[in-house]
DNA sequence: AACAAAAGCGAGCAAATGTTCGCTTTTCTT
DNA sequence: AAGAAAAGCGAACATTTGCTCGCTTTTGTT
């Protein structure tokens, strides 16, 4: 029913974007006066992964610059070559994530005739990108409050956009008599929340030994059950 | 199919527990040397509601004691009569919430023969308690990281317990041939996450004018669809 | 090898933050 | 009404925290 797998998605991601850290470099090296791409991407990797680790342990606000310095092994002064202040760390992470997600997740791609197929593909793509950028999604979700108001609203809006995109496909499927769904809004909310579940509770699925492809399979099965898809 | 409503639940809550603020008083007045119940419950209400408000705006960590003082209109010294340090605020809120939830949510009540009915009741009860204690649930979910490790693990464990309780009823229903469910784990995760959705995204449902009872109705409909309940 | 530019360092500064304590005001009992 | 106890106050203190800047080390080019 769907011709995607995490394997192939991940290859696409690699060719399309490369890796997360050079993306960070590309988006920020100008204003930070970073010249050596090789050094800088390595440092970005080290710093941001440490930020993820410490934020995960006690939250971004509670993480001090001294914590970050000690844990990453980079001095205070050294750190500030890679961002100009603490809140900019969150902004950088958010901006890079949005950039990467937008590059490979095409909400408006509707080249199929079958709205159910479109829905499946939308869901699968989102699971795959959040699998690849698991820690980024988790971080942005948990620490969004550190951002400025307008940016927070951007995040809420893009969440809503995903739910709307799901809803749109369900309604379309219903109109075209592909399914019988009496509560499209609720089903859309349910599916969107299960997209978040994948990166918010990833430890649970690692523990259960369920990978992204298996999760997608479960999710698509639920789509059929919830929508009452006619075979 | 289910004889519960938020109306009746709320009445039970009031007779069983009274109100949130006197609960806070009862649990803490000894160690804080608070004598006047009347004054103290009013202050607790004022302080904790302000904590909810400020935490909601920028997070508990980012909220300073001066913010809390200014917004509540209580002096710094005055505040410290109602808790002994900042982290104790989170602990107090958490402890009171657990106490209230445990008092009126009985995970082990299985007096019915019908496991589907039991499942419905479990879900409805949880929606209702999280409706009543909406801000408490939201706060604890968002600020759990401020707590000590063992307490955080308590929270994770109780979340897992809810999912397990749901799963148990699904499996039971399947064994007794009430339904045909091929992915009980996934369905259990889905239902639990929709319980959280109610208090994490409450603004969405206020906006859509969907109340707790309507949400429960939607949820129970999904149970039927996901489990393939035989009529 | 020499030199300039980039990267890295960490003690030190200013501001912010949690908490205290001596004092005043309110409350309640007798 | 008087007095004692509880509640409330806010300036002051010690610590923490984000951040800078003069300096050293590393890197890459000629």
Helical stretch tally of chain A: 12
What proportion strand of chain A? Answer: under 5%
Largest interface, C-beta within 8 A: A-B, 27 and 27 residues
Largest sheet of chain A: none
Instruction: Please state the oligomeric state of the protein chains shown.
Output: homodimer
Query: First CA to last CA of chain A: what distance?
Result: 12 Å
Structural class of the secondary elements of chain A?
A: mainly alpha
CATH architecture of the largest domain in chain A: Orthogonal Bundle
Number of structurally distinct domains of chain A: 2
The succession of helices and strands of chain A, N to C, reads HHHHHHHHHHHH
- What is the CATH T-level topology of the largest domain in chain A? Tetracycline Repressor, domain 2
What would you call the shape of chain A? elongated
The percent of residues in helical segments of chain A reads over 70%
* Overall pLDDT of chain A: 94
Got a strand count of chain A? 0
Low-confidence stretches of chain A: none
Q: Supply Rg of chain A.
A: 20 Å
